[in-house]
Amino acid sequence: DIVMTQTPLSSPVTLGQPASISCRSSQSLVHSDGNTYLSWLQQRPGQPPRLLIYKISNRFSGVPDRFSGSGAGTDFTLKISRVEAEDVGVYYCMQVTQYPLTFGGGTKVEIK
Amino acid sequence: EVQLVESGGGLVQPGRSLRLTCAASGFTFNDYAMHWVRQAPGKGLEWVSGISWKSANIGYADSVKGRFTISRDNAKNSLYLQMNSLRAEDTALYYCAKDLSGTFDTWGRGTMVTVSS
Predict the structure, then answer these.
(1) Burial environment of residue B83 by CB neighbours within 10 A (0 to 12, 13 to 18, 19 or more)
(2) Measuring CA to CA, which residue among A51, A48, A100 is closest to residue B112?
(3) Average pLDDT, 10 consecutive residues per value, chain B (117 residues)
(4) d(CA B67, CA B62)
(5) How far are the Cα atoms of A96, A100, B21, B46, B86 from residue B64, in angstroms, in the given order?
(6) Chain A contacts in chain B segment 50-109 (CB below 8 A)
(7) Helices then strands (H, E): number in chain B?
């Protein structure tokens, strides 16, 4: 199984400042079709997960442009350029390259 | 509006069975693969099972293989999860999610399953 490791576990951030979350996979997420099925999800308190980024760096419809994704192979990063109060929650990376699908353990973003 | 609504959760004794349903609307259900994902109280997300649009390709997490069965009825725009031999560690909020070509773009609000005597 592909293990997804996220760091940090928690990220206290000042409003308006940037935040960065790292996700590392135990093996390459490049699919045989050439795509890399790495997504980022946001889960606000009491809410279901919400898709932010798919295939490493593609922002989903309606997602603010302060969110960006990057990386390749086994190392990926989610960046929030300027954290806003509504960004508080837990962020998960997930891979859909290979069964069983797996999630990172989550990174909690909170305001300092 | 694209919508997924889960139902069928509840309190069940260990060893018993439960069937979850996910009702889909607002999109052409039989064009998409679908998945179940669960979240134990206070914990992270765990993929449970997935099924392709024509049910030809099905996958399960090791933790539920042999006990849970995923299925779908495209005529009824519905996804199902038959859960047998339930254990305390299956206690979780169960979400269904729509697979948009390798990402989960739509999630339901979940249905809670509690396994306890």
Answers:
(1) buried
(2) A48
(3) 97 98 97 98 98 94 97 98 98 97 96 98
(4) 10
(5) 18, 11, 17, 11, 9
(6) 50, 59-62, 95, 97, 99-100, 102-109
(7) 0, 11
